[in-house]
Amino acid sequence: MTHSESRNPASGTGKSAFVTGASKGIGLAVAQALAGAGYAVTLTSRTQAEVEAAAQGIGGQARGVVCDVRDPQALQRAVDAHVDAFGGLDVLFVNAGLGHFANVEDLTIEQWQEVIDTNLSGAFYTVKAGLPALKRRGGYIFTLSSLAGTNPFAGGGAYNASKFGLNGLSEVLTLDLRQHGIKVTQIMPGSVATFFNGHTPGEQDAWKIQPEDVAQLTLDLLAMPERTLPSRIEVRPSRPPTK
Hints:
Keywords: Oxidoreductase. Belongs to the short-chain dehydrogenases/reductases (SDR) family. This is NAD(P)-dependent dehydrogenase (Short-subunit alcohol dehydrogenase family). The chain is of the alpha/beta class. The chain has one domain: NAD(P)-binding Rossmann-like Domain (Rossmann fold), CATH 3.40.50. The chain has 6 helices and 8 strands; from the N terminus they run ββαβαβαβαβαβαβ. Helix 6 (211-222) links the parallel strand 7 (182-189) and strand 8 (232-235). The relative contact order is 0.14.
């Protein structure tokens, strides 16, 4: 495991966040927003150069860590290093995900396993790694799901299954953890202008939800009164193109 860290971290709020899949897209936007709000942030990605560049671009108390969420031991090491560096953990943003899309006949076993292992098992491993630290002082878990977690579509066998499962896991986490002072919110976006599935965002994506919109939503949820939990948030483009 490697990381990059600013030599002159800002004092911040004394709070910290751990964001998976944060070298670009929604994860990066969330990490940037949290850092701007005074959080020390660890970003993870499977690609060293990308995650280190992302952390350096944020600056301050931002660390870029190479970590594959399919590896529970690697996740535990990454979270432990985060807690050692920042003294605790307040926000866990479970974002890492990918998709393979094909009808069930053509979807390979390997593609199925990669999607489920990343999007669903990886979320479980991330939460397991972060729970001891979160329970010590309460905190917030965000799971980045999708409208595909309630709306199946042809060719979405693996992706739909992973997001339906993630929604179920998130709802159970809410029930399991609420008495420990830990909030859990599943954020379910529709079309977002990201690099997901090899897409390159451009002007053609102006109608879509932007990553910074999800980041703003995250800050808004963190600002909610302690007594109130928006447990599931569906997010759609306000004016998609007509077909």
